[in-house]
Amino acid sequence: MKGFLVLNGGEAFSPKTKESDHVWLQFIRTRSRPRLIVVPVAAMDKHERTAADVARYFGVLGTFAEYKLIVDQRTANTAVEYEALNRVEAIVLTDGSPVDMVERLRGTHTEEALHSALARKAAVMATGASAMALCGVYWFANEWEPGLGLAPHLAILPHFSLVRMRLSAERLLAGLPDGVTLIGIDQATTLVCHPDRTYQVLGAGSVTVYRSGEQLDEYAAGSRFTIPLAGPD
Q1: Which residue has the higher pLDDT, 233 or 124?
Q2: CB 197 within 8 A of CB 222
Q3: Helices and strands, counts by H and E, the chain
Q4: Would you state the pLDDT for residue 180?
Q5: What pLDDT is recorded for position 232?
Q6: Is 73 exposed, middle or buried (0-12, 13-18, 19+ CB in 10 A)?
Q7: Which residues are bridge partners to 36 per DSSP?
Q8: Is residue 150 within 8 Å of 134, Cβ to Cβ?
Q9: 10 near 158, Cβ under 8 Å?
């Protein structure tokens, strides 16, 4: 992986995350205004309004931001939509439903474009449900479901400060596939996965790594950590 995977805990595109977004945008700022495309494929409704609002947010942060209405299998395989993803420095995925996002992108050219972005020096940023869907598995209806596998060795729980008391470590880890590490991300908190396999925490909250059922390591903003991989990416 030469690019950056940027995972937000579910409260993105707000004054609370503006500083964090400034930080990760610097990693891909090879020009004065990096090109960025917003994709609302996880959204359950108001796709265009959601994408336009997020594009305006990133425009204020000094990017050349636009959006593509990739919202289903058809548009995810429409060349005029997905080909633009291969020409930008960042792709941003909005919140919504992890189930819908996986179903809409599985096996499409847009899914290929997301993987390609991480194979070059670009960033894929996702928040909430879309952050869940990009990983090896995601938690839905009390079990783990296959995700899109951009980070096959990770599973993400967004809004972690709100859900951590409802789901025990034993319950979550019981069905987690071998080689997958579970990470909880608080709201208004961002985790940046760097190409050198280090992880950087940005924002107001913290990130919790499930090292085992007995060991949960918490990392505050400014922290860096690593996760041993069981095999190749």
Answers
A1: 124
A2: no
A3: 9, 14
A4: 97
A5: 43
A6: middle
A7: 65, 90
A8: yes
A9: yes
